[in-house]
Amino acid sequence: MSFNTFGHQFRVTTWGESHGPALGATVDGCPPGIEIDEAFIQQFLDRRRPGQSKETTQRKEPDAVRILSGVFEGKTTGTTIQLMIENTDQRSKDYGEIARQFRPGHADITYHQKYGIRDYRGGGRSSARETAARVAAGGVAQAALRQLVPDLQIYGYMVQMGAKHLDRAKFDRNAILQNPFFLPDAEAVDEWADYLAAIRKGQNSVGAAIEVVAEGCPAGLGAPIYAKMDTELAAAMMSINAVKGVEIGEGMAAAALTGVENADEMVMGADGVEYLSNRAGGILGGITTGQPITVRFAVKPTSSILTPRRSVNVAGEEVEVITKGRHDPCVGIRAVPVAEAMMACVILDQFLMDRAQTGGIRGTIG
Amino acid sequence: MSFNTFGHQFRVTTWGESHGPALGATVDGCPPGIEIDEAFIQQFLDRRRPGQSKETTQRKEPDAVRILSGVFEGKTTGTTIQLMIENTDQRSKDYGEIARQFRPGHADITYHQKYGIRDYRGGGRSSARETAARVAAGGVAQAALRQLVPDLQIYGYMVQMGAKHLDRAKFDRNAILQNPFFLPDAEAVDEWADYLAAIRKGQNSVGAAIEVVAEGCPAGLGAPIYAKMDTELAAAMMSINAVKGVEIGEGMAAAALTGVENADEMVMGADGVEYLSNRAGGILGGITTGQPITVRFAVKPTSSILTPRRSVNVAGEEVEVITKGRHDPCVGIRAVPVAEAMMACVILDQFLMDRAQTGGIRGTIG
Amino acid sequence: MSFNTFGHQFRVTTWGESHGPALGATVDGCPPGIEIDEAFIQQFLDRRRPGQSKETTQRKEPDAVRILSGVFEGKTTGTTIQLMIENTDQRSKDYGEIARQFRPGHADITYHQKYGIRDYRGGGRSSARETAARVAAGGVAQAALRQLVPDLQIYGYMVQMGAKHLDRAKFDRNAILQNPFFLPDAEAVDEWADYLAAIRKGQNSVGAAIEVVAEGCPAGLGAPIYAKMDTELAAAMMSINAVKGVEIGEGMAAAALTGVENADEMVMGADGVEYLSNRAGGILGGITTGQPITVRFAVKPTSSILTPRRSVNVAGEEVEVITKGRHDPCVGIRAVPVAEAMMACVILDQFLMDRAQTGGIRGTIG
Amino acid sequence: MSFNTFGHQFRVTTWGESHGPALGATVDGCPPGIEIDEAFIQQFLDRRRPGQSKETTQRKEPDAVRILSGVFEGKTTGTTIQLMIENTDQRSKDYGEIARQFRPGHADITYHQKYGIRDYRGGGRSSARETAARVAAGGVAQAALRQLVPDLQIYGYMVQMGAKHLDRAKFDRNAILQNPFFLPDAEAVDEWADYLAAIRKGQNSVGAAIEVVAEGCPAGLGAPIYAKMDTELAAAMMSINAVKGVEIGEGMAAAALTGVENADEMVMGADGVEYLSNRAGGILGGITTGQPITVRFAVKPTSSILTPRRSVNVAGEEVEVITKGRHDPCVGIRAVPVAEAMMACVILDQFLMDRAQTGGIRGTIG
């Protein structure tokens, strides 16, 4: 069993290799009657597109998405939606030399060990390029959520890049889309840019931490016990290339808290229950509370670097690996729109799962 | 869609409420011919059983498991295995007062909101008692792994309890099962015990961090893209009650690393490829490398505490909640055997998934 | 991957062997707030219970169902529902001699070949006894449908038993539950009884054909392309022990029809679209039309008979098999309540699947 | 939940509408290292291609398949395989008039009722054109089976077309691919051709029955209880457009048999167990016996005919429907390669499922 599908109701199967003719997403289970077109999906793809700045790989791809099925006269029909993105800039030559070598910290060796064969061109299936398909599928989810959960807003941003940390006191949501780092602090952008430039000049790369927030999600979404909202979000984020840690609300810091500190106290407000804090990250018992859902995850540094590292090749010879070609010094940056897409897919999926079982009934308070 | 099942090939569906007549696990997909009996499973249940010491709830449950199907003459037959644990010590009276109130930081309110009805006795389905069923299912997985992956060893331990941290310099695996904290440092046990006693005396509770390691797992397990070994482990751990963060290898710390630091370099050793470090936690591209798999997760403090907290009730009245009854001051402690069980289930599941697709073929090196 | 689960939203996993301590069904995904108790489920079990008459096996089993989880204060909570039926009358001795032999036409040999081990007591997992668990799960589905699709009525009946055929001109629905054959023709009962008595006296058994009808099912249920209503019903019926053929509407006879004959013409009636015929069996393109859903299936004769048949044993020796013990001369009779249960599960499952994707919206006509 | 996926291990998701830009199949779970290319898949597509003779629709489509992912240097890599077929001959004008009308016996009305929107061009998603994607996916399954189960041979043929029946005494497998009816009797071809010509001249269409056989399938495949080999085959065939009945082995005729007649007796032959008959169609208890697997199914007549039929339109007006355009007078003919493809997918899926659970171990006899 390979496993290129995620989601239960809203099921996305991604396909395609970095240097194949195309890649895309096969979306099954989308509600019918959702207004959507290629331009709507394209806006999300444009945000993760390579070649936007010197902070991201210089590979030039228009990443133009085509809807091949499932949409008729501007609306979804309830049938399979096929989204295709053609690979236009492949330059296989760049990658020829890694055909026999394994990059340290990269999936090269494990794909070889598992499958006995791998498409080594640009990392093949293990390339972060696969995430373009996720972003396209996320666009469909965003279109559906726009109609089904109109108050929902999903936004992600960088909170850390190597030694640089976001100063939360200066958090400005409006700044996020104004800079190539998705950084919610306009003043810090130059500093981060200089830092990353130095990393690149040092023939190195660096890790990052991203936070994604969903505001306006209704209470009651999440399927205990094994498809809890936090479980699904953790799986979604951990499935993104190079992610090694995921946190909901307090995350790992919860280990240091006492029960008195951790209790998100409740009072009755004008619109019903109000929480005095949100250490739970908007999820209790795997079910949403109606507070903002907050997820944080860490992305390890790009494993493809110009600094030589010790490794082996298919023949079992020890080699020094230097990875030329076009690679982001910080893959975490482009993980921001990917994480937003994954969160949109998970929330839509949970909305549909909840609608199936409960029909949307809700226990009232007061 | 409720979602009480986890796993793809080795599929475990848990059932039962804290104060119902019984709870258990329905296990589908277990290979046939696996030697197993109730005593083998019982040893794992005994490790998480309540009432073992003052560190865990005083609720007295023998937690005796019965195999109702799927095993014949001491071996699995390949059919559904039903594991049942009867609830013998329920004392529903203890819990009567929370029928209308919602404990801050607890699933009481979200279950009510989602389903419009909840079994409030002892937390019903959201009780950590559900994890007994996971441990029983984990016992089946351990029996299968004993035959299919004989070199595999899975062990978990506490690395943090509130303000107390494991001193890794003193790590002693043999100490883990010698103390009620699953602490791999015998010398620190009294200090941790005093700390937790003070927490309880203060009518409080505290969080914890647990680490689980799998040694001897072969390379090649893990199903990219959306059932990666790390994705499945993250989901498995995040599905455990009160878990808010999961890390693989370096985890969140990967955000601070450079590519040079993060690269797990490789050389050729006597038995093939040898890694000079294991920042990846034994997983690259979602597929195991053959190194130890290391997972870490944080458990928030018990939400049921004696210190009054502000909350609301079903009628929409503001109330002060004080939770009497028998509750662990640190639920994280008993999460250790639960996490071991989840890891066993995930590794077996991935072993079977890999066997399905690849037939166990492996790409050779050298 | 074993596969003891059916359903997508309403997911039933059955467990248990013919002569184990118990068998049952683990039901996941049931909507919350459904009124149900053991007595409601029991009425369905009582209809398939053995030992009711000389037409069915003399094995005496109360088949008393217990609800172990998922129901609180008379209503479903949305969590896993565990249904258990204890085996009280086992008499393993009766079956000892088939431990090494394979009954012709029976699963004995294939279970042995597939798993290398089998619980030979009473056929173990392959026994028709497994269907008791389906009927219990069907009771839960019936309870949910009673609230969600109140107009729905599901009823099955025999249309053939060996050489005996139902005379449709005499169809009387009220007669079905008045005789042990579920025969909708009171006058024919004695004749069928004599026929079956002769079959038994001849140390033989006989096949049967059953028809199941669902009236009052709304239009719009069914999930093209691969979970069509007819696809799911075909799978459900074919999964019942000894079933070898399934027909929807005209069934196999459709091969002889012309397009002019086959077209179910439509007119506008007082309540909207009216069909002038129902050759499609209430399903077009895998989606219900609102007409009665009609399914027919054939059950082969019991393979356990007293007439000696040539076979082999585990040692590879040729043997003559005579199966003593308590066996129905026509297993098809008890397939009637089983098929009703499967149809209830499928329709509920499709109702929930449709609710997930469409939210129950419907395209209007006129 | 829409449901455009079939299979458990070998999972095929089809996409595309009759008159969209393209259609195809997304194949997940294919074993790695399988030799395959577009030409191999194309041979299967060529057999179902329209426009081959006057017996099938005159729509001219090259139906050229492209492999967009999952294959590298002539072998599968274990990642998602995307197969795309572009629609080159659409002529939407032909279909304009059915935009508001519902063809009797067609999915037009139920798609409208379920989704509130439908792509009416050529039947959109409900068109038999979807089966081209199945045939392409079946080509991948055939390639995998060629390596994994080399003795397996799958072949289908017509056994009935309206009033015409195959004379089994004249069965000649070699004749099947020599005539446009997949008829295993060369002498009868002209007679069938004249019969079908008369049907068309009469502005009518006709149903058909097809039989598919798999020889050389090993014993032990099939996943009781709910993914039995016969259950999966029944679902696979019933999911094909216009199919209304499915039979395994004796099928519906089993209802007339006695146990003595139905018992497939066994003796020991040179190569182990030998069966003296095959009424079970090669499947006992849902598991293959090693005998030929025989499946039969009925296809109803094309609902798009030139003879006027009474119907209604979206406005709720009564209309007379006459369907112009290019339609097969017997859709059953092209169901033959489709059924072969479905059978190949099911057998491969079961082979992989079995490999997962049992590792291919087998209980021996003698």
Automatic annotation (TrEMBL), chains A, B, C, D:
Q: Which cofactor does it need?
A: FMNH2
Q: What is catalysed by this protein? A: 5-O-(1-carboxyvinyl)-3-phosphoshikimate = chorismate + phosphate
Q: Which residues bind FMN?
A: R125, S126, S127, N241, A242, G285, K300, P301, T302, S303, S304, R326
Q: Does the keyword Signal belong to this entry?
A: no
Q: What keywords were assigned to this record?
A: Amino-acid biosynthesis, Aromatic amino acid biosynthesis, FAD, Flavoprotein, FMN, Lyase, NADP
Q: Which InterPro entries match?
A: Chorismate_synth, Chorismate_synth_AroC_sf, Chorismate_synthase_CS
The protein's Enzyme Commission number? 4.2.3.5
Record note on cofactor: Reduced FMN (FMNH(2)).
Q: Could you tell me which pathway this protein works in?
A: Metabolic intermediate biosynthesis; chorismate biosynthesis; chorismate from D-erythrose 4-phosphate and phosphoenolpyruvate: step 7/7
Similarity annotation: Belongs to the chorismate synthase family.
- How does this protein assemble? Homotetramer.
Q: What does this protein do?
A: This reaction introduces a second double bond into the aromatic ring system.
UniProt name for this protein: Chorismate synthase
What gene is behind this protein? Answer: aroC
